[in-house]
Amino acid sequence: MRKRALFSLLVPFLAVILIAGLCPVAGAADIKIGGIMDTTGATSDVGKDYALGMDEAFKWINEQGGVNGKKIKYTWFDYGYRIPEAITKYKLLKRLGSIVIMGWGTGDTEALSPTVNKDKLPYVSASYSAHLTNPAKTPYNLFFSSDYSTNARAALTAWFDKKWPGKSGFKENRKPRFAAVYMFASPYCSAPIKAIKDQATMLGFEIGPDQDVSLFALDTKSQVMALKEFKPDVCWHGNTTMSVSATLRDAYGLGLGADWIVNNWGYDENLPRLAGEAAEGVMGATPIAFYGQNYKNMDIVVAAAKKYNPGVPQEKRLIRTPQAWGDALVTWEALKRADKAGDLTGDGIMKKGFETLSLFDIGLGASPITFTATDHRPTTGCLIQEWKGGKFQEVERVDLKQRWPEKWAKEWLGW
Amino acid sequence: MSSVWLPCGDYHENYLQDQGWWQSNFVKFKMLLLLAVVFIGIPLFAAEYWIGVGTMIGFTAMGALGVQLLIGYTGLITLGHAAFIAVGAYTSTLMVLQFPWPQFMVDAGLAYPVSVIAAGFAAGLWCVLFGLPSAKVKGFYLILTTMAAQFITVDFILTQYVSQIGGRGQAFSLPPGTIKIGPIVMDSEREIYYFMAVLLTLMIIGLANLLRSRAGRAWVAIRDNDIAAEALGINIVWYKLLAFFVAGFMGGVAGAFWVSNTAALSPEHFPFFLSLWLVGVILIGGVGSIHGAIFGSVFMVVIMELLQMAVIPMGDYFPKLLIDFAYIKDAAFGLAICGFVIYEPNGIAYRWWQIKNYFNLWPFSY
After folding, report:
1. Are B170 and A39 inside 8 Å of each other by CB?
2. Which chain A residues are within 8 Å of B170, Cβ to Cβ?
3. Does residue A402 share a domain with residue A366?
4. Domain check: are A333 and A261 in the same one?
């Protein structure tokens, strides 16, 4: 009897699923955009705010009339930073008719890159890996920000320009010592390592052994102790905020004495909250303004956040929201241009949309964005900021193309 | 004795008939129909998305068959099978990318097929290595040694060393056109599906044949009572290791196949959850049956897809459902395992067996 009762419940349930599942899923929206976000996985400490920002941006864009009057239907999933899940979700979004995908991590973006190329589906990611910037290899991968390698080169250069001359080692006329701390296994963390070591070599640094710190790390004392043996002057941290702050606290507690430069996903408003005094003097790559900073279009971002997600306190919002807007706004502009040219195919969105952008200004303190058919590095440099005296302060806006034009043009594309 | 009751009045007269592939003309017709559906119906008439779902079912089934052999037929519980799939995937990818193939082999599209076979052997041997403790330990302790395979292989060796080969420090990416079988370049869902269907069919035939052989009987004897099996003269260490090798081989081939589906690879493709998932698949499908691995794979992949389809229209009203679907899926997986363990502990395969027997014996099913 019990089994029969179970079946009488199970059969209608499965039938409903089957009917709903096989129903046509296309809605009335004119333009479908898909999203693959991480709000619960390894990078959720920065992913939640980004996902909220992206959703708000598309709502706001629709309020402005969408893409030349066509509304955008934005469907997004949390994939928990699990690559197989990202692949499944990508296929689903493609099936739903998405013409652009807003992606997230480096691992899944790079893993999906061959598929994206095959499908000719523009993939605008929150991964700014330089490996995605060479259109000869990854023609459908894009993002609005300076890439990780540019961030890393710029951060090290800014430290070398502004901080190194004030150090005792400089006066002793010895080489500055550099070490990199990151999660070896994470494609995001490891993406700019070759570039930053190349930059360190070029600037005359002595390079120490890398330290492996997990994205989930809460205790990094052994890595800091290993760093102490090398006595670095400056360390690069390539993780996200949570493990960066854990490392900063341990380095502060154990008296490492090195300066820190941090990649953009490890450098946000939460860093001083989590690291406390240890965050003082920490420099980081900031491809866009911090949330609420006084820049063009920031009022729109803040108003949309208040309107669409009033339950999220303003003081909890991060630079991740403007970052999401950066990707959304650049996609919006590309779609408008491609639509005006009457070609919303993947190829059309690239050639008549993204690759027509030249020094395009999205506001929000971001550098002007340019894509060409041969170069998908959106910007040529990055603003480096420092947490000092309770606020973020500008250190230097490093323009790599201006300083090393030959290398920028001929050597540094795609890594 | 055959596992299926024959229709009333039909009897086997000798052992060969009892173990025959085609127990009756109806069985032959049924299997040919199934092959027609798999090889003609689905690839020709299904939408590309559903062909992709079929490929996922096949990948899951290939992995689950190895787990079924270890757990269901030999009684060796494994929680590290994702590691052997990973070894296969990395072996194949590295061979395709790094091995100095003679040009004629590349031109003839032999590099990838050879790498698939090599992947099977590499994963099989790797699996034997982690199966060695089974000579001394069993049950709960063996579970821990297989878990060690997962952590040592994926989290340590593949992550820290193998994925750094070539100085990438990121996902291995196979350029378009690299994965080629003979003249066929694997660049569409349909080709990948066909490849999966061929591999899975070969694996099922191979495993079913092994299970009918001396080795198969030895495995079942070890599962049922290893001390009695040893007393009967079965070399249990040899047969346990053979089971590990065959399971690893199938996992390795599954991994090599996975590469053709994604064209990119990183250690994150093979989390511990995949090992758990495969055990869940055979629990739901039915432990100790090849059908079980297939049914479990179909059930887990298709039900999850349909659940997802059902959630999408609701997304407009309950956006959280859509956003958190990955976790709804995990919860559904857990719930399905609980449901099956409580209400149908023998899995879907047992229900299928009952249905078949009911019709075979009809109208005298009592």
Report:
1. no
2. 106-107, 110, 129, 131, 187, 190-191
3. no
4. no
Whether B255 maps to a domain, the answer reads yes
> What pTM does this model have?
0.80
Report chain A residues whose CB lies below 8 A from the CB of B324.
40, 78
pLDDT tens for A371-398 read: 999 999 999 999 999 999 999 999 999 9
Of A328, A320, A352, A351, the C-alpha closest to A339 is: A352
Q: Do the interacting molecules here have an ipTM over 0.90?
A: no
The verdict on B72 and B169 lying in the same domain is yes
Most B CBs within 10 A among A11, A77, A113, hence the mutation to make, goes to: A77
pLDDT-derived band at A24, boundaries 50, 70, 90? very low
DSSP-based helix, strand, coil % in chain A, nearest 5: 50, 15, 35
Confidence category of residue A10, pLDDT binned at 50, 70, 90: low
Range of the domain at A361: 31-146+292-379
In 3-state terms, chain B is what percent helix, strand and coil (to 5)?
A: 75, 0, 25
Give me the domain span that covers residue B108. Answer: 47-271
Q: Among residues B271, B297, B316, which one ends one of the domains?
A: B271
User: What Cα–Cα distance (Å) separates residue B26 from each residue in B7, B12, B16?
Assistant: 10, 15, 18
Our CA-based measurement puts residue A120 at a distance from the nearest CA of chain B, in whole angstroms, of 13
The residues, any chain, with a CB within 8 Å of residue A11's CB and separated by 6 or more, are: none
How many Å from the N-terminal Cα to the C-terminal Cα in chain A? Answer: 65
> B359 vs B5, B7, B29, B290, CA distance in Å?
10, 8, 16, 21
B29 and B149 in a common domain? no
Tell me the two tokens of residue A30: 């004119």
Taking 70 as the threshold, does the pLDDT of residue A29 lie above it?
no
Q: How far apart are the first and last CA of chain B?
A: 19
- In this complex, the residue of A3, A25, A39 whose CB is nearest that of residue B312 is A25
Q: Are residue B152 and residue B84 in the same domain, yes or no?
A: yes
- Would residue A6 count as lying in a domain? no
- Please give the tally of structural domains in chain A: 2
Answer whether A274's CB lies under 8 Å from A297's CB. no
Report whether pLDDT(B62) > 80.
yes
Could you give phi then psi for residue B38, rounded to 5 degrees? -70, -45
Q: Are residues A65 and A134 in the same domain?
A: yes
